[in-house]
Amino acid sequence: MTRRLRNVVDLGELPDVVFGPRDIMWWGTLGFVVIEGFTLVLCAAAYVYLTQNYATWPPEHTPLPSLGAPAVQVIVMLLSLPVVWWTAKSARRFDLGKVRIGLTLATLFNAAFVGIRLVELLVSLNVRWDANAYASAQWMLLCMHGTLLAVELVEVGGMLLLFWIAPVEEKHFSDVADMGFYWFFMVLVWLPLFVLCFLVPRWLQ
Asked: What pTM did the predictor assign?
């Protein structure tokens, strides 16, 4: 009786840590982006649908939203992009010192996002969530995107603690790069929503 020969592949040359689409966690992050992006699209579609049911948007006797805090939010978000890009680039180089600095700055930026979002909800919208359909749609969009900001603050804050306190392994640098990918989605998806929530009501008056 002869034994069957099996092909053997030497995987010793494969890297232990990879980035981007070669990393399975990157695909998981992409899945979150697709799911959350689709949810925001549905919310925006509901918002646009509601505008067709009113002669004016917002409805009569409903104040327009203020632009101060929302404009600051957009500026701060855009300013964060070079910092996060630099942090992700440093992670690909396994530069521990620069990644620590980048995560510290990213955490501060993200905390500012959440704080400004609270001001937007409580002050800038100038309307309670249950005042009418317009108010509910405004609060829905800001809160839905606000969950992205809050969850990302937990993630980035956790990474910050890990990189400053816990033993850091090479695989953790890949997580930082994936965080940068998600961060760009979180910021850039807000730009059309900002236009929808704070500029469109002025254009439809």
From this structure: 0.88
CATH number at residue 185: 1.20.120.80
- Give me the amino acid identity at 167: P
Q: Quote the tokens at residue 50.
A: 């509601």
Q: Answer whether residue 10 is part of any domain.
A: no
pLDDT at residue 16 is higher than 90? no
Domain ranges, residue 69 = 23-203
d(CA 104, CA 80): 12
What local confidence, expressed as pLDDT, does residue 13 receive? 61
